Amino acid sequence: MSLHIPFDNSYARLPSRFYTRQSPVPVREPELVAFNDGLAKELGMRTGSEVERALVFSGNRVPDGAEPLAQVYAGHQFGGFSPQLGDGRANLLGEAVVGDQRYDIQLKGSGPTPYSRMGDGRAWLGPVLREYVVSEAMHAMGIPTSRALAATLTGEQVYRETGALPGAILTRVAASHIRVGTFQYFAARRDLPALEALFAYVVERHYPGIESPEALLDAVIDRQAKLIAQWMSVGFIHGVMNTDNTTLSGETIDYGPCAFLDIYHPDTVFSSIDTHGRYAYSNQPNVIVWNMAQLATSLVPLMPDQDKAVEVFTRSVHAMPDLIQAAWLRRFGRKIGLAQLSKTDEALVTELLQIMADGRADFTNTFRALSDGRARDQFLDPNIFDAWETGWRTRIEQEEDPISVMRSANPAYIPRNHRIEQMIQAAVAGDFAPFERLNTVLSKPFEGQEGATDLTYPPEPSEVVQQTFCGT
Ligand code: AMP
Ligand code: MG
């Protein structure tokens, strides 16, 4: 039975100024290197032969029912407004419909589009596999995210700072790719009919029942507050929280120079282009508020009374830091075994983080070791842990089952930066075993797994990844 995806393409029915119809640009020699059978099943897809999958997920064959297009959007990049961005190297094939849910099926690295600017429209294998592994790991940790359906090699080379690299394409699946920047694009043009159409579309697709722009803003703020708290709770640093990389659905998208904390320090930055630390680990809660303020600004024209709109939206945006803090505290409370929070618990969390920073403790391993009594070993000077531990032990006596709470909040396995780098190097040399192993182990991040202890180790000094790159 040949490959089949149950397409119904609602975005392609929006006015033509929302996108450019465009097919993926065929590649020389498509080769399927990864395929996510579980996700394909969830999408109600018939997978066909490997040859067909290679053709479809490299862009060489447009599958039946697809209506390929490149979406247009705008966005604040590192705080500066770009009035026109768009899918410069991506192609939305269409939406797979499963029950009442729609999923964008998008190729990333599929060739130039009218929005490519100076770019070549392509991706190389490294960032493709990085996004594959990290997005699937995030999903397995219960964090809303786009997902990875397939990765193909193109048989072509792409040229980046470091020279010629193997070209690749990622097929990603998302609740949608509508961004804060999508609203900004039409707001910047004072295109009220388009804003109205986009508002109606987002409500129908993501927030059924919502009737007003202020209710939409509050709903997006709520989802984004929870999302950022989840990122923080696993030590995830997105790296490029531009408004064009912030979704209306509340999912994580656009994995570029993202990375996970090894040693805990709040100021950690990995991205080579983030020279001022705008998107540092601890700044993510501030940035998301700023991004929601940009969303609010672009919703103003939809309100009948503009002054009133500014007043109401300002109140919503100003309420967001407290929402994030509450979501953050719930997550971190669970990380130290507290299902029910009391007033003094916040200090217990912040004190632990402070001594972790002072003691150069590994973020993931310290939290994970709390439940088996070995956290002390994670500190350069274990004495600083002892005082904290006494208070904490007293506190968790009041909890019903702190061990299970901690075990389900503290992953044993995360996609560590040095493992990702090693996996990419192996894949470039033709060995995909480390890639498959990472996917397998990271699919059960909260379960100890036989023979996988090495994946919990922090990097050796020679393995430490100092910087990560967009790969664009
Ligand atoms: P990002 O912030 O990495 O998600 O991307 C910012 C913008 O640059 C988006 O509009 C992308 O489509 C575009 N872009 C990134 N890489 C490329 C590329 N290799 N070719 C064309 N456009 C690109
Ligand atoms: Mg982007």
UniProtKB/TrEMBL annotation:
Q: State the InterPro entries in the record.
A: SelO
Please list the coiled coil stretches.
none
UniProt catalytic activity: L-histidyl-[protein] + UTP = N(tele)-(5'-uridylyl)-L-histidyl-[protein] + diphosphate; L-tyrosyl-[protein] + UTP = O-(5'-uridylyl)-L-tyrosyl-[protein] + diphosphate; L-seryl-[protein] + ATP = 3-O-(5'-adenylyl)-L-seryl-[protein] + diphosphate; L-seryl-[protein] + UTP = O-(5'-uridylyl)-L-seryl-[protein] + diphosphate
Domain of life, per the record? Bacteria
Q: State the active site.
A: D244
Q: Does the keyword Manganese apply?
A: yes
Give the residue range of the signal peptide.
none
Q: Which UniProt keywords apply?
A: ATP-binding, Magnesium, Manganese, Metal-binding, Nucleotide-binding, Nucleotidyltransferase, Transferase
Give the E.C. number(s). Answer: 2.7.7.-, 2.7.7.108
What residues does Mg(2+) bind to?
N245, D254
On whether Nucleotide-binding is a keyword of this UniProt record, the answer is yes
Report the protein name in the record. Answer: Protein nucleotidyltransferase YdiU
Record organism: Roseovarius phycicola
The record describes the protein's role as:
Nucleotidyltransferase involved in the post-translational modification of proteins. It can catalyze the addition of adenosine monophosphate (AMP) or uridine monophosphate (UMP) to a protein, resulting in modifications known as AMPylation and UMPylation.
The gene name on file is: ydiU
